[in-house]
UniProtKB/TrEMBL annotation:
<dbReference type="InterPro" id="IPR035990">
    <property type="entry name" value="TIM_sf"/>
</dbReference>
<feature type="active site" description="Proton acceptor">
    <location>
        <position position="168"/>
    </location>
</feature>
<dbReference type="GO" id="GO:0006096">
    <property type="term" value="P:glycolytic process"/>
</dbReference>
<dbReference type="Pfam" id="PF00121">
    <property type="entry name" value="TIM"/>
</dbReference>
<feature type="binding site">
    <location>
        <begin position="234"/>
        <end position="235"/>
    </location>
    <ligand>
        <name>substrate</name>
    </ligand>
</feature>
<dbReference type="InterPro" id="IPR000652">
    <property type="entry name" value="Triosephosphate_isomerase"/>
</dbReference>
<feature type="binding site">
    <location>
        <position position="213"/>
    </location>
    <ligand>
        <name>substrate</name>
    </ligand>
</feature>
<dbReference type="GO" id="GO:0005829">
    <property type="term" value="C:cytosol"/>
</dbReference>
<protein>
    <recommendedName>
        <fullName>Triosephosphate isomerase</fullName>
        <ecNumber>5.3.1.1</ecNumber>
    </recommendedName>
</protein>
<dbReference type="GO" id="GO:0004807">
    <property type="term" value="F:triose-phosphate isomerase activity"/>
</dbReference>
<dbReference type="InterPro" id="IPR022896">
    <property type="entry name" value="TrioseP_Isoase_bac/euk"/>
</dbReference>
<feature type="binding site">
    <location>
        <position position="174"/>
    </location>
    <ligand>
        <name>substrate</name>
    </ligand>
</feature>
<keyword id="KW-0312">Gluconeogenesis</keyword>
<comment type="pathway">
    <text>Carbohydrate biosynthesis; gluconeogenesis.</text>
</comment>
<dbReference type="GO" id="GO:0019563">
    <property type="term" value="P:glycerol catabolic process"/>
</dbReference>
<dbReference type="InterPro" id="IPR020861">
    <property type="entry name" value="Triosephosphate_isomerase_AS"/>
</dbReference>
<comment type="similarity">
    <text>Belongs to the triosephosphate isomerase family.</text>
</comment>
Amino acid sequence: MTASRPLVAGNWKMNGLKAAAAEFGRMVEGYGPEMRKKVELAVCPPATLLYTLSVMAIGSRIAVGGQDCAVAAAGAHTGDLSAEMLADAGAAYVIVGHSERRTDHGESDGLVRAKAQAVLRAGLTPIVCIGETEAERRNNETLAIVERQLAGSLPDGVGPEDLVVAYEPVWAIGTGLTPSSDDIAEVHAHITGRLFARFGEPGERIRILYGGSVKPANAKEILGIPHVSGALVGGASLKAADFLSIAAAYA
Ligand SMILES: O=C[C@H](O)COP(=O)(O)O
């Protein structure tokens, strides 16, 4: 896995029954050699579809990933899935700290960090999500919030290939709203600076995805912003045509 190509990752969230595999099949078909050279694609389906999609992805170079994991590797944790299980099912990535997990399940920065460590332990790459709420942005706290979340959520001792950061303003998720390009640029530059401060020069090469209402219509503009090295896409990743059209912003 190289950090040189940008990454467009789809997060299907709690969407997709068996029939959704056909949509993934269309993504596999559409991810041709030219696109592969320019952009890496990953799809994080519900865990029930992970193994099916990973088998379909063999030979296609589309990665699949999980949306969350437990901290422990195995044991008496009813209903949980370990990073090792996700790896066994074919995952290459695991999203941790998504704002919906932070909100719905009260996940703290410390827990997100432990989950990111678990992902690394299993040999996978964590996509660590951070981002401010609408109230925090209104109070001009955005940079302080992302800085605090980064400091608390990122694992230590990782190289640029081992880690992906996703900046997702909570108020932009699923709303059709997006920050201005200048605002996205400011936050991504700030995150880059913090990654440099924490990891040294390799930290500047850690990919920082933008997430929050990325659509085919705005992908080219958002993905062209300095320090934006890909996207974490929710709703628009459910349809192959939309997802591939977003990735085509790099073509
Ligand atoms: O993980 C993906 C994000 O939450 C963005 O979702 P969205 O593209 O539906 O706004």
